[in-house]
From TrEMBL:
Claim: Manganese is one of the keywords in the record: no
Organism: Lepraria finkii
SMART domains xrefs: ANK
Name the record gives this protein: ANK_REP_REGION domain-containing protein
Keyword Cell membrane: no
Cross-referenced InterPro entries: Ankyrin_rpt, Ankyrin_rpt-contain_sf
ANK repeats: 41-73
Pfam family, one: Ank
The entry's keywords: ANK repeat
Chain segments annotated as coiled-coil in the UniProt record: none
Length: 80
């Protein structure tokens, strides 16, 4: 698993928070990863999708390789 720390305002987090499946295009382009981490809160796109209740996007992110066990800055993962 390769984790990248990226700026909070990266497109991946806006799309994930909005439930937009456009995240797939970012993955295809290599400009984002399911395990990118926000630089302030340590959220992944999966954290953003879970917090907003976007279950279909959550399923997609997990199928794309997102790791539900990654903990945010608070120490909580989405499985907690």
């Amino acid at each position: 698993m390769t984790l990248r720390i990226v700026p909070n305002d990266s497109a991946i987090f806006s799309l994930a928070g909005a439930g937009n499946i456009g995240v797939a295009k970012l993955f295809d382009q290599g400009s984002a990863s399911p395990d990118d981490i926000q630089d302030q809160r340590s959220f992944t796109p999966l954290h953003c999708a879970v917090l907003r209740g976007h279950s279909e996007l959550c399923k997609f992110l997990i199928s794309a390789g997102a790791h539900p066990s990654i903990a945010a800055f608070s120490g909580d993962s989405i499985t907690d």
